[in-house]
């Protein structure tokens, strides 16, 4: 995640020091992801999953809870260590791997599903596609999952204004939309959109903001003003000291291989 281009080395740097807040305050993924996979490809607990760019293990945990063996491939040491702490109870089905989307270090044909949660935009498309094709079995699939924050609600609009005011140093990354996914996969995919949400108090709102790579580090003096803005959001939109952020969780399901 370089500042001005997408590359694996920059990707490792951008989330340095944010693993704790990322693990605690990023939204999880709904069970509907698993239900869609079961319905569409007969996904079950016997399938081996590679979660690429697995971060602190939020998406991985969905598959581990379902009984799958999951290889969690993550280049950032802080994020990987946070995942190891979070997911250690799932060993030996949970396997932590230091690697990238372009070089996972997994055996060829060793996985049934490659999962990517909130990370495809950081990958080199050609390199990742080739690596996914290498590690997948003949009937393997790719599942790309994103939690996209809605923009129409009062809480979401106010939250977005905080980001617009204080967010800096945004990476020049592609938007992962239908067109981008169609190019990455083999021209055909299925798309599923399902509702998701997270309810946050003051600490949760601050942590959710701090988990974004473009927000100031938490020792920055601007956090005094950020906290004031969050308190205003809670006062205007809160219920018993909490607010709810709403998301659309989008699942893209397809395949990769030689073109």
Features:
23% strand; 10 helices; disordered N terminus; Rossmann fold; 7 strands; 38% helix; alpha/beta
How would you characterize this protein structure?
The protein has 259 residues and is of the alpha/beta class. The chain has helices at 8-14, 19-25, 32-41, 58-65, 77-87, 125-135, 154-166, 178-184, 202-210, 223-237; strands at residues 48-52, 69-73, 94-97, 111-117, 136-149, 189-200, 243-254. The protein has a domain at 8-150 and 170-198 and 247-254: 3-Layer(aba) Sandwich (Rossmann fold). The chain has a seven-stranded mixed sheet, with helices on both faces. The longest helix has 15 residues, at 223-237.
In brief:
The chain is α/β, with parallel strands linked by helices. It has helices at 8-14, 19-25, 32-41, 58-65, 77-87, 125-135, 154-166, 178-184, 202-210, 223-237, and strands spanning 48-52, 69-73, 94-97, 111-117, 136-149, 189-200, 243-254.
Q: How many angstroms separate the termini?
A: 27 Å
CATH architecture of the domain at 8-150 and 170-198 and 247-254: 3-Layer(aba) Sandwich
Helix content: 25-40%
Q: Could you name the ranges where pLDDT drops below 50 across 5 or more consecutive residues?
A: 1-8
Name the strands of the widest sheet in spatial order. 3-2-1-4-5-7-6
The computed structural class is alpha/beta
CATH C-level name of the domain at 8-150 and 170-198 and 247-254: Alpha Beta
Largest sheet: 7 strands, mixed
DSSP strand (E) fraction?
Answer: 15-25%
Q: What's the total number of strands? A: 7
Shape: globular
Give Rg in angstroms.
18 Å
Number of helices: 10
Instruction: State the order of secondary-structure elements, H for helix, E for strand.
Output: HHHEHEHEEHEHHEHHE
CATH homology-level superfamily of the domain at 8-150 and 170-198 and 247-254: Vaccinia Virus protein VP39
